[in-house]
Amino acid sequence: DGGITQSPKYLFRKEGQNVTLSCEQNLNHDAMYWYRQDPGQGLRLIYYSQIVNDFQKGDIAEGYSVSREKKESFPLTVTSAQKNPTAFYLCASSKYSSGGRQPQHFGDGTRLSIL
Amino acid sequence: GDSVTQMEGPVTLSEEAFLTINCTYTATGYPSLFWYVQYPGEGLQLLLKATKADDKGSNKGFEATYRKETTSFHLEKGSVQVSDSAVYFCALSLSGGGADGLTFGKGTHLIIQP
Q1: pLDDT tens digits for chain B (114 residues)?
Q2: DSSP secondary structure string, B31-77?
Q3: Rounded to whole angstroms, how far apart are CA atoms B76 and B61?
Q4: Cβ contact, residue pair A99, B102, below 8 Å
Q5: Scanning A31, A100, B42, B102, which has its CA 20 to 30 A from the CA of B32?
């Protein structure tokens, strides 16, 4: 079955460390996204990528980095510059279309906590 | 900028009650509208969508109609079940040239009591 796989499900980070969250999709979608979810704040867009080797900053990109070397993969690195990284991180993908009419499909998320 | 406003929760109902979760939006263009549902510890699942005015999206007994005149996309269900307990997100997409992310409301936590 096609879908989006995020790993790990739970991740712990020490102060000053970078950590990388994995996101893989086998839906043959062109576009991929990273969102951050905090209690009571909904989801906020961190980065998105419409095609391989290209990505754009979202609303809260500071302290994060991404790469898109393959169509199937869109890893997110939470750097030590991100001062409040504890959150639930969701990866999504969608077909490319003008007008934003294609829905996004989500993975099951990674919960990041600071030790 | 674009934004989505949802009624705040938690919303607590008895089984078989009628459900309405209000959603209004502000957008500079002509958005597509979505409702997503999130069960505890999981990602978001698409519940329904509408891409133009007066479209009605429907799925699993839930419905929402795209009302351009009131900039609304309220979610309704005639008879809720305990299994409908979850967080519901209204979202819009306003992407002129491709796919640049969704704008979400803050979510509404729905609790259905037996």
Answers
A1: 789 999 888 999 999 999 999 999 999 888 899 999 999 888 899 999 998 899 999 999 999 999 999 999 999 999 999 999 999 999 998 764 445 688 899 999 999 999
A2: -EEEEEEE-TTS-EEEEEEE-STT-EEEETTEEEE-BTTTTB--EEE
A3: 8
A4: no
A5: B42
Q: Which residue of B has its CA nearest to A97?
A: B98
Tell me how close the Cα of A79 comes to any Cα of chain B, in angstroms: 22
**Facing residue for B99 by CB, picked from A31, A40, A42:** A31
Identify residue A99 by its one-letter amino acid code: G
Q: How many CB pairs under 8 A join A and B?
A: 77
Taking the C-alpha atoms of residue B7 and residue A105, their distance in angstroms, rounded to an integer, is 24
Question: What residues are paired with B25 via a beta bridge?
Answer: B4
Task: Output the CA angle A37-B20-B102, nearest 5 degrees.
Answer: 35
Please answer yes or no on whether A48 and B45 come within 8 Å at the CB atom: no
CA angle B30, B33, B34 (to 5 degrees): 165
Task: Name the residue with tokens 């739970």.
Answer: A10
